[in-house]
Design brief:
Keywords: Cell membrane, Membrane, Transmembrane, Transmembrane helix, Transport. Belongs to the binding-protein-dependent transport system permease family. FecCD subfamily. One of its GO terms (cellular component) is plasma membrane. This is Hemin ABC transporter, permease protein. By secondary structure, the chain is an all-alpha fold. The chain has one domain: ABC transporter involved in vitamin B12 uptake, BtuC (Orthogonal Bundle), CATH 1.10.3470. It is 77% helix and 0% strand. It has 16 helices and no strands. Helix 3 crosses helix 14 and helix 6 packs antiparallel against helix 7. The two termini are 37 Å apart.
Length: 353
């Protein structure tokens, strides 16, 4: 048994180390690519000296924080998706589809409408309302699960889709009462964006992400047992109610913090855990660290494609149609929509067989 455990530990360390190395390479390379600044001039200065030169200011205060935020946000969303898929035993579950991102976005919209200046200067307010908004669909789904005697994961999934539509209607209602400046801010934010300035948001997000990651890593065995079913997990010694509550709260916190900073970016929590499960199996002791790392890598690559989309078009010899970048939420939706349909059709076919 010790040989088996050692082999498993070596596999976890090896795969996590490989993903970490890939992430570090992308973290170094992506900020260096594209744009009109001189990287050589920018790298002559340290981050704390970046005010001394415009190129250094752009590199250290916008490019590097943006890529770091992509890694943080992608890791949080992938971890949240991993938790919901394990607890609900449904690979289609993720914060965006279950309406949790929509609830968090509604909280952000309310913060902007009722306290416009505070929402821009005091980031605890939108983050707090995002967290409250993320809990509303979780509470609703919990009530649905308790009220329906023979509920299925598909029932919860459809309830989540309905919640998404409902929250979208409320967001439109809020935008109807907002002024032009607020509506423009809300509209841009809803498409998702990682273009932050400085490291303030990263400092706020890092301890929450690290705490959530540690909680999920410590409960990776519980996730393995919950993926077998609530009754089976209970028979195997898991205190289901307390454990599920802790895991759901952790996933909601990771989602709320990400949405508060980067907007409702969808499908990361759907695509990354599902592909990792296909590649590496269903052991959450491995899936938790890999979801955190590959979630960040996936979102950093998607953001790069949208960020440098027009330059990529020029490199291919096609005339630019605009100088604007494509928001990362649109890129993940373009990738995730077809993936979701493929996953749904695959499940229908497997259930018919």
């Amino acid at each position: 048994m010790s040989w088996v455990r050692d082999t498993k530990a070596r596999k976890i360390l090896a795969q996590s180390g490989l993903a970490l190395a890939l992430g570090l390479v992308l973290l170094i390379v992506i900020p260096l690519i594209g744009g009109s600044i001189s990287i050589r001039s920018a790298l002559r200065y340290w981050p704390w000296d970046s005010q001394s030169h415009p190129d250094a200011l752009v590199f250290w205060q916008t490019r590097l924080p943006r890529v770091l935020l992509a890694f943080f946000a992608g890791g949080c969303l992938a971890l949240a998706g991993l938790v919901f898929q394990a607890v609900l035993r449904n690979p289609l579950a993720e914060p965006y589809i279950l309406g949790i991102s929509g609830g968090a976005a509604l909280g952000r919209m309310i913060a902007v409408l009722v306290a416009w200046n505070a929402a821009n200067s005091f980031y605890v307010l939108p983050s707090g309302l995002c967290f409250v908004g993320a809990l509303i669909p979780i509470a609703f789904l919990h009530l649905v699960a308790r009220s329906v005697r023979h509920y299925s994961p598909v029932t919860l999934l459809l309830a989540g889709v309905m919640l998404n539509v409902f929250f979208s209607a409320l967001i439109l209602l809020i935008q109807y009462f907002a002024d032009f400046t607020q509506v423009q801010s809300m509209f841009l934010w809803m498409m998702g964006g990682l273009d932050v300035v400085g490291y303030r948001w990263l400092v706020a997000m890092a301890p929450l992400m690290l705490g959530g990651f540690i909680v999920l890593l410590l409960h990776s065995r519980s996730l393995n047992l919950l993926a077998l079913g609530m009754e089976t997990a209970s028979h195997l010694g898991i205190e289901v109610r307390r454990t599920v509550g802790l895991l759901i709260w952790t996933a909601a916190l990771l989602t709320a913090v990400t949405v508060a900073i980067a907007g409702p970016i969808g499908f990361v929590g759907l695509i990354v855990p599902h592909i990792l499960r296909l590649l590496f199996g269903a052991d959450h002791r491995l899936l938790v660290p890999l979801s955190a790392l590959y979630g960040g890598i996936f979102l950093a690559v998607c953001d790069f494609l949208g960020w440098r989309a027009m330059e990529i078009i020029s490199w291919l010899g096609v005339e630019r149609i605009s100088s604007a970048e494509i928001p990362v939420g649109i890129v993940t939706a373009v990738v995730g929509g077809p993936f979701f349909l493929w996953l749904l059709i695959s499940r229908w076919r497997s259930s018919e067989d």
